[in-house]
């Protein structure tokens, strides 16, 4: 089975107090992420500065020795605040995530000749890969013990 990606940050920053103000101030913010068998799915909120805009997610599985970039797609309808737009992304990780213990990513927003990044305050968004226990195999929480007394 594919590994479970465990966020090393709160997986729903958009639910935290002051989120709308952070979007206004920084122009782009991660709203939420969710690990799925197909990869990492998430949403980004951007300040609606101009009609034409591009949002993408740059990510790595090897500590930035190499990286890839996935585009994010506009998600109508616009949020009810009237000043932001929502974009959704899917990072297709597949089997490559099983070999690497950590996924890191940052969000890029290009609009009106400017570029804005959300890199989790300089720490990047990091998720740790954790192997799932296949169904039907009992999990013994004491299996790491040296001696098991009955």
From TrEMBL:
Highest taxon, organism lineage: Eukaryota
Name of the featured protein: PPR3D phosphatase
Biological process annotations from GO: regulation of glycogen biosynthetic process
Taxonomy of the source species: Eukaryota, Metazoa, Chordata, Craniata, Vertebrata
GO molecular function: glycogen binding; protein phosphatase 1 binding
Annotated ranges, domain CBM21: 20-128
PANTHER family per UniProt: PROTEIN PHOSPHATASE 1 REGULATORY SUBUNIT (PTHR12307), PROTEIN PHOSPHATASE 1 REGULATORY SUBUNIT 3E (PTHR12307:SF55)
GO cellular component, one term: protein phosphatase type 1 complex
Organism encoding this protein: Formicarius rufipectus
UniProt xrefs under InterPro entries: CBM21_dom, CBM21_dom_sf, PP1_regulatory_subunit_3
Gene3D superfamilies: Carbohydrate binding type-21 domain
């Amino acid at each position: 089975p594919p590994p479970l990606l465990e966020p090393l940050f709160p997986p729903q920053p958009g639910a935290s107090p002051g989120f709308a103000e952070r979007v206004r101030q920084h122009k782009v913010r991660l709203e939420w992420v969710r690990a799925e068998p197909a990869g990492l799915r998430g949403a980004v909120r951007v300040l609606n500065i101009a009609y034409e805009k591009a949002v993408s997610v740059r990510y790595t599985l090897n500590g930035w020795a190499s990286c890839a970039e996935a585009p994010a797609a506009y998600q109508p309808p616009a949020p009810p605040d009237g000043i932001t737009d929502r974009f959704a992304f899917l990072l297709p990780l597949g089997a490559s995530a099983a070999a690497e213990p950590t996924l890191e990513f940052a969000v890029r927003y290009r609009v009106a000749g400017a570029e804005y990044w959300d890199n989790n305050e300089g720490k990047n968004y990091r998720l740790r890969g954790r192997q799932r226990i296949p169904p039907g195999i009992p999990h013994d929480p004491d299996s790491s013990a040296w001696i098991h007394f009955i």
